[in-house]
Amino acid sequence: MHFLAIAVILCAMTYLIKDIAHQIADGTLNARDHIENCLAAIDDKNGQGQNTFIETYHDRARAEADAVDTARKNGWALPPFAGVSLSIKDLFDVAGDVTKAGSILLADSPPAKKDATIVARLRQAGFILIGRTNMTEFAFSGLGMNVHYGNPLSPYDRKTGRVAGGSSSGSAVSVSDNMAAISIGSDTGGSTRAPASYCGIVGLKPSTARMPSDGVFPLSPSFDAAGPMGNSVACVSIIDSIMAGGVGVSETPFNPDGLRLAIPDGYLMENLDAEVATAFDAAIDRLRDAGVHVQKIRLDALEAMRPSNNTKSIVSAEAYAVHRQWLESDQSDKYDPFIGHRLRGGADILAADYIAMFEKRDTVCHNIKMQTRGFDALVLPTTPGIAPAINAMPTRDKQLEMNARSLRNTAISNYLDRPTISIPCHKSGTAPVGLSLMGSRHHDRRLLAIAEGLEAIIRG
């Protein structure tokens, strides 16, 4: 396709999945043209495709798009999202492919025998899988860097080179750079939301038990949650529905007037970058102007919790258990030293301490539930800072420090197992900043209805 034609189509497309699906269904957009646009963005030598994707399905995606166009022209029945592009994080199984989880350690593993249930559901709904996205090795960092496959960069200030956030870094950039309309990642401590915040898109962490985990390479089974990333709340709401076994619907937006939001006053609101504080405060002012009641509350149980800084945790214990066989073998030198160091942090956690951590978690979750039951959601900055520059982290200690900072505000949602969504709240042209809404455990769809009602206000 001629470059000018690609540019014209890019300008005409919204990359909102409802719009793309409707345009393909009514014939105003060919599925092949949509897929070619995504592939052109991936293949652009001046773009981020090489670092964003570990594997791209050029031929398969084109063939599936052609099949969609043929079926539409012949009037054959098609699934509701036929032809819409999808990228997936490199820890989801696809039949016939090796799931590397962003590592070289698994490169010689046998290929998956079937799609992960989540992937199968999305493909059955008509989505065309365009590629496997880069990620932090084994999903164990909030920065999104990968020594084996490169570092996807935030769309902001690429001349400097800022991280895209992790661990679902490639997933976020694939959406922000129009390489895919939607992506799925995973979230154990903030891995869909930190990248969403750093890249200016929407990311959702569901309640853990909401999503099937078969065919998904684990980090911490007690905390892992597969979640969608897209250009709008409606996009992630549709994907969340399908991932959980639904038909792919968004929610009826709540009326903002009268909603009650709580800001957790304390360490989660401290030491914010100026850009984050300015954008967040402006969004809160807009919410109040729209009739939303916003109140600061002190959650003492949270003040003692610093999940992103705790090297002796449920996550580190379970992550070590997953990797022990490799860490104690002659394969251990294949790990990124930063990731290997973090994984070894769970090596000496006693079983009694592991059990006690769950007991403490249950107590904290109950206390927070009692304190926040009068509110519709908690609201806080997704990350305390904007995307950090890679050259500002020359040492492992500096990476550890910035990793903890990137996940400081997100990790609490995983600890409490509450659905949380990050929505961009910055002014156009400025550093991306995310605002998070944290709902009640297992009330994911209610949170999405609240988020759809508040999105336009939050975005300003």
UniProtKB/TrEMBL annotation:
- Organism superkingdom: Bacteria
* Record SUPFAM superfamilies: Amidase signature (AS) enzymes
**Enzyme Commission code:** 6.3.5.-
- Is Ligase one of the keywords UniProt gives this record? yes
* UniProt enzyme class: ligase
The alphabetized UniProt keywords are: Ligase, Transferase
User: What is a single molecular function from GO for this protein?
Assistant: ligase activity
Origin organism is: Puniceispirillum marinum (strain IMCC1322)
Q: What is this protein called?
A: Glutamyl/Aspartyl-tRNA(Gln/Asp) amidotransferasesubunit A
Q: Where is the Amidase domain?
A: 36-448
